């Protein structure tokens, strides 16, 4: 018995199913069900909610989510050994746990959750795929997205890059994309000693809530502009934005940004203005070429 349910302690599950941790799959398991309950509670009340979980592993977080009353958990797991271990959890919570064996990067998550229903994403993410998964969720189209919130464990350094404010060292492309579409904060840190095996660095749980109406902007244009700006983050924008192939000084002036500023000083609204201005200039250029050739 483990405290939150009548299933065996996770140490026994790991031993009985031979779940020696695989580095290649970013396996660092959480065995403390009080801690996994704390992560699940960070998402808010779960009754009536379908939770998408990536990488349930031996099921510590999955069990906490189910014990807290989530209507259903849809869990994507790449390691077949873990899938076998999770069938016991599925039996304990009939019809409430759906396990999908596969690579979360290859699966369209929208097909797994009820459309129009309440959905939250909760995961102790494998570190090697955490950032691409987050970028995928932040890039959802249409917006507002299919989920109400994302509650995700990252390495502390990645968590800081997600929530960073302008003017700070961690502020970059990820903070601009996350800040444009979501409000986010670091809920709490988790020390290496909480995991088996312990990773080298501290981890953090980040909670992201989609903004209902982000500033209108094309995501592709925003990515293009931040790529140019942060690709040369120490340079002034009048220099770093040259690769955009438009009149950089005019673009900056229209966006109300001094040409001597550097990328890390520009708030999200500034990047949105740059992205919109860049796109308008590109469209105008394409139009004038097609008019000239007709
Ligand atoms: N949720 C468990 C916990 O908290 O103890 C395990 C977390 S462990 C950090 C990451 C899990 O993600 C592992 O079980 C691993 O097998 C799984 N995983 C790794 N890459 C994956 C992928 N591309 N798609 C789905 N699951 C993956």
From TrEMBL:
Residues that hold S-adenosyl-L-methionine according to the record: 28, 30, 55, 77, 103, 124
Alphabetical list of PROSITE patterns matching this protein: RRNA_A_DIMETH (PS01131), SAM_RNA_A_N6_MT (PS51689)
Catalytic activity, as annotated: adenosine(1518)/adenosine(1519) in 16S rRNA + 4 S-adenosyl-L-methionine = N(6)-dimethyladenosine(1518)/N(6)-dimethyladenosine(1519) in 16S rRNA + 4 S-adenosyl-L-homocysteine + 4 H(+)
CDD domains, alphabetized: AdoMet_MTases
Compartments, as annotated in UniProt: Cytoplasm
Recorded GO MF terms: 16S rRNA (adenine(1518)-N(6)/adenine(1519)-N(6))-dimethyltransferase activity; RNA binding
E.C. number: 2.1.1.182
Top EC class, one word: transferase
Keywords noted in UniProt: Cytoplasm, Methyltransferase, RNA-binding, rRNA processing, S-adenosyl-L-methionine, Transferase
Entry-linked SMART domains: rADc
A GO-annotated cellular component: cytosol
Matches recorded under InterPro entries: KsgA/Erm, rRNA_Ade_diMease-like_C, rRNA_Ade_Mease_Trfase_CS, rRNA_Ade_methylase_Trfase_N, rRNA_adenine_dimethylase, SAM-dependent_MTases_sf
Transcription listed as a keyword: no
Keyword presence, rRNA processing: yes
Domain Ribosomal RNA adenine methylase transferase N-terminal intervals: 35-212
Superkingdom to which the source organism belongs: Bacteria
Entry function: Specifically dimethylates two adjacent adenosines (A1518 and A1519) in the loop of a conserved hairpin near the 3'-end of 16S rRNA in the 30S particle. May play a critical role in biogenesis of 30S subunits.
Record-linked HAMAP family: 16SrRNA_methyltr_A
Family statement: Belongs to the class I-like SAM-binding methyltransferase superfamily. rRNA adenine N(6)-methyltransferase family. RsmA subfamily.
Protein name: Ribosomal RNA small subunit methyltransferase A
Provenance organism: Ancylobacter pratisalsi
Encoding gene (name): rsmA
């Amino acid at each position: 018995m483990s405290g939150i349910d009548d299933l065996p302690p996770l140490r026994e599950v790991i031993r009985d199913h031979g779940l020696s941790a695989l580095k290649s799959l970013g396996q660092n398991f959480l065995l403390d069900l009080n801690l996994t309950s704390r992560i699940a509670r960070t998402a808010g009340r779960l009754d009536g909610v379908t939770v998408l979980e990536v990488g349930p592993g031996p099921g510590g977080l999955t069990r906490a989510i189910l014990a807290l009353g989530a209507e259903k958990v849809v869990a994507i797991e790449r390691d077949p050994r873990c899938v076998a271990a999770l069938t016991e959890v599925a039996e304990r919570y009939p019809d409430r746990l759906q396990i999908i064996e596969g690579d979360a990067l290859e699966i369209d998550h929208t097909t797994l959750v009820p459309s129009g229903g309440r959905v939250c994403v909760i995961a102790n993410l494998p570190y090697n795929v955490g950032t691409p998964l987050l970028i995928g969720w932040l890039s959802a189209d249409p917006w507002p997205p299919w989920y109400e919130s994302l509650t995700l464990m990252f390495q502390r350094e990645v968590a800081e890059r997600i929530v960073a404010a302008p003017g700070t060292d961690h502020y970059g492309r990820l903070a601009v994309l996350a800040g444009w579409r979501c409000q986010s904060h670091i809920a709490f840190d988790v020390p290496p000693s909480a995991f088996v095996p312990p990773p080298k660095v501290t981890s953090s749980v980040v909670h992201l809530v989609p903004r209902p109406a982000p500033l209108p902007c094309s995501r592709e244009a925003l990515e293009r502009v931040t790529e140019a700006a942060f690709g040369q983050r120490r340079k002034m924008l009048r220099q770093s934005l040259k690769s955009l192939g438009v009149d950089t000084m005019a673009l900056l002036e229209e966006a109300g940004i001094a040409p001597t500023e550097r990328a890390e000083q520009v708030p999200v609204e500034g990047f949105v203005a740059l992205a919109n201005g860049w796109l308008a200039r590109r469209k105008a250029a394409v139009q004038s070429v097609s008019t000239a050739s007709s």
